[in-house]
Design goal:
CATH architecture of the largest domain: 3-Layer(aba) Sandwich
Oligomer: single chain
Largest sheet: 6 strands, mixed
Number of domains: 2
CATH class of the largest domain: Alpha Beta
Structural class: alpha+beta
Helix content: 25-40%
Strand content: 25-35%
Order of helices and strands: HHEEEEEHEHEEEEHHEEEEEHEEHEHEEH
Shape: globular
Length: 393
């Protein structure tokens, strides 16, 4: 990482752009704009302002007059740091030590922003790109992308391209698909009252236990759903599979009060081939059977529904990108699909074949304490992007 790249990354990391508070978005976009222009890129900003909060999307263009345009998808919003006291290195200060860069967002996804812009800078300097680039640098990815990549692709900007690269993945494989995400909350309804008289009331916590026990059976139902897309290396299954997890439990307010409500939130992962509405219906039907079996009153609300996606491994761009990764990084790097979700479906929904590659290695602690990025991975991602742009026509 040279001095220009380090300074760029430092300025990005020092801005707390967590997706809960949505602050510093405008300041971050201005930093990105300045460095993109220094790199020689043409820059446009499209603000998807929501609830009076600016949510600027930066589109940085490298136009070499080619027939084909590559879209690079990145994001500058990050997850909150959690308890800052638990961090060994300050989350909003870039620390470089032992071949690693530490700080919130260095890997997910600000390091990938810098790698993408730096790659474009090198291509402009060498005049070697054989395709046009549009680097899409957005907010909102950590909470669904509605005012980020979704806005750029489906809103007024109507960005178009021939191939998409989601620079928001890992370097261990080339991903050509991702899981869909369905999140929701099951609310168990009881009757609130004084804990000294439990026989007079219906304890929602107690009622929720048998209901959750039955819902655990849905974990096995989802596990049997199998995809044609390969799972990442090290996975317990050969191909992607369906998953269901109960992830948040909320109930009660005081020790001397019988709770009248208990909330069980869940996360369901779909495979690329599944229709999320069909899976949503299946979850609702399974819950109805669980309610009948346990005689528990409960309601269901879905919070998030995002489709999975997949691209044809035989597509020309996919094969060419995979070839670049194997030549630059490792000849044995496989093609797989992601267990998590990402913004690639905003490309594939427009018929744009898409692949994912980036610095998010499994050990990076992204979304966790002391997030870091291997500097070697940063260089690999940058070199792969340059090689692809120089050899793809």
């Amino acid at each position: 990482m040279d001095k220009w790249e380090e300074t760029f990354l430092r300025e990005l990391v020092e801005l707390d752009t967590n997706s809960d508070e949505k602050k510093n978005y405008q300041e971050c976009a201005e930093v990105v704009k300045r460095y993109c222009e220094e790199a020689g890129l043409k820059v446009e900003i499209f603000d998807s302002k929501h609830d009076d909060l600016p949510q600027p999307n930066v589109v940085a263009t490298l136009d070499v007059g080619a027939k084909k345009t590559i879209l690079l998808c990145t994001h500058y919003d990050v997850v909150p740091p959690g308890d800052v006291e638990d961090w060994k290195f300050s989350p909003f200060k870039l620390t470089i030590k032992g071949g690693k860069a530490y700080g919130r967002g260095v890997s997910d996804n600000k390091g990938n922003i810098v790698a993408s812009v730096s790659a474009a800078k090198e291509l402009i300097k060498k005049e070697s790109a054989k395709v046009n680039w549009k680097i899409l640098i957005s907010p909102n990815e950590e909470i669904g992308g509605e005012y980020g990549i979704d806005y750029l692709m489906n809103g007024p900007p109507k960005i178009q391209g021939d191939f998409g690269i989601v620079v928001d993945s890992g370097p261990e494989y080339v991903s050509i698909g991702a899981s869909g995400v369905i999140a929701g909350t099951i609310t168990v309804h009881g009757v609130q009252g004084h804990a000294g008289y439990p026989f007079k009331f219906a304890n929602a916590i107690h009622l929720s236990v048998p209901l959750m026990q039955v819902m655990l059976d849905y974990v096995d139902v989802r596990r049997k759903v199998e995809s044609e897309f390969p799972a990442p290396p090290g996975s317990p299954h050969r191909t992607l599979w369906g998953r269901f997890s109960m992830t948040v439990y909320k109930a009660g307010s005081k020790t001397n009060t019988i709770p009248g409500k208990a909330e069980i939130s869940f996360d369901c992962r779909t495979i690329p081939e599944e229709n999320v509405e069909d899976v949503t219906k299946d979850i609702a039907e399974f819950l109805e059977k669980a309610k009948e079996e346990t005689c528990v009153e409960a309601t269901l609300e879905f919070k998030t529904k995002h489709a999975g996606w997949g691209s044809d491994p035989e597509n020309h761009f996919i094969k060419k990108f995979h070839s670049s990764v194997r030549e630059v990084a490792d000849p044995d790097i496989p093609i797989s699909a992601d267990l998590g979700g990402n913004d690639g479906h905003y490309f594939t929904s427009h018929g744009i074949p898409t692949a994912c590659f980036g610095t998010l290695r499994d050990d990076n602690n992204y979304h966790g304490i002391d997030e870091f990025m291997h500097l070697d991975d940063f260089e690999t991602v940058k070199k792969v992007l340059i090689h692809f742009a120089e050899t793809c026509e």
